[in-house]
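hey so i finally got around to running the thing on that chain from the lab meeting. sorry it took forever, my laptop kept dying and i had to restart like 3 times. anyway pasting the input first so we r on the same page abt which one it is
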Amino acid sequence: MEKMYIQVGLFIDVLYSQNPFVKGVFLFIEASEGRRIEKKE
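ok and heres what got predicted. didnt touch it at all, straight out
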């Protein structure tokens, strides 16, 4: 599972350099995903 997140992170890093707006959107999604993961545990 962690490996998948790292691969997605690297892919998103490439998108960041192309479009800074994507970074803001992804950080927002990541924050809400993080909250969901915390609730599950």
